[in-house]
Amino acid sequence: MYAIGLGNNMDEVLKAEKKLREEGIEVELIRDPKRLVDKLIRGEIEGAVRGSLPSSKVIPYLKSKIGRFYRTSILKNPFTGDIFLLSPVGVDDISEEEEERVEDKIKIINLASNFLRSVGIEPKVALLSGGRLGDLGRSKVVDRTILEAELILKHIKKENKNLEIEHRGILIEEYLKEGYNIIIPMDGISGNLIFRCLALVCGVPGWGAILLSEKNVKFIDTSRNADWKRYYNAVKFLHNFNIK
After folding, report:
1. What pLDDT, on the 0 to 100 scale, is given for residue 241?
2. 182 near 84, Cβ under 8 Å?
3. CB-CB contact of 87 with 75 (8 Å)
4. Is the CB of residue 40 less than 8 Å from the CB of residue 13?
């Protein structure tokens, strides 16, 4: 049994539930954010999808129950057809303080790499910053993002020599064309904008945002504005890692 949160955008959630039931997958629709999380934590359901419940109600309560985690969107690469992970994608997913923000990104890289390996995919990490590397010196804001990415790159290469990781500035299109499967934006705001442009504007298929943490919690975050197929895909992913 899986659960999907039912808030606004109700019709799309109901379409997803109908399709899943037709395939023999049991789904419970839950309107109360706390009840959704509590049933998951108590093990009463196999996995949960936020569905169309508000993030501001679900995510803080989930954090109070399981501690720190990171949301990572699972999207289909429009150039290769494979999946890639995009994180951070929430405005409060990582710290605003520089030192803690760097630590958060390093944790995301390590957790995302472990997750991909767990489903049989070798990770390739792309660090994004606010401009081309040759733009250094043109903007203090861009400079900060470039230098931060270089710092993370140096740390990861020192600690994990076997992990493929690159920093080429803002050139996300090059990374995706070359099959990089972990994309690390500058912060949660830019990550959320990338997700919305790809998924909600351009219609790139996705499976929601899975949680990355030290604990094994089967929860996928989804947008309140998603169509039925994204809610359907999220449950299918939890059910059998059906990512093709």
Report:
1. 67
2. yes
3. no
4. no
Assessment of whether the complete model's pTM goes beyond 0.90: no
User: How high is the pLDDT of residue 243?
Assistant: 43
How far is 95 from 115, CA to CA, in rounded Å?
22
Query: What is the per-residue pLDDT for 226?
Result: 84
Three-state secondary-structure class, residue 63: helix
Helix and strand counts by DSSP (H, E) for the chain: 8, 10
Give residue 223's identity as a one-letter amino acid code.
S
- Residue 153 to residue 151: CA distance in whole angstroms: 5
pLDDT of residue 118: 86
DSSP 145-161: HHHHHHHHHHHHHHH-T
* Spans of the chain, pLDDT less than 70: 241-244
Separation of first and last alpha carbons in the chain? 22
Residue 23, C-beta contacts closer than 8 angstroms, at least 6 positions apart: none
d(CA 179, CA 83): 9
Q: In the prediction, which pLDDT does 34 show?
A: 97
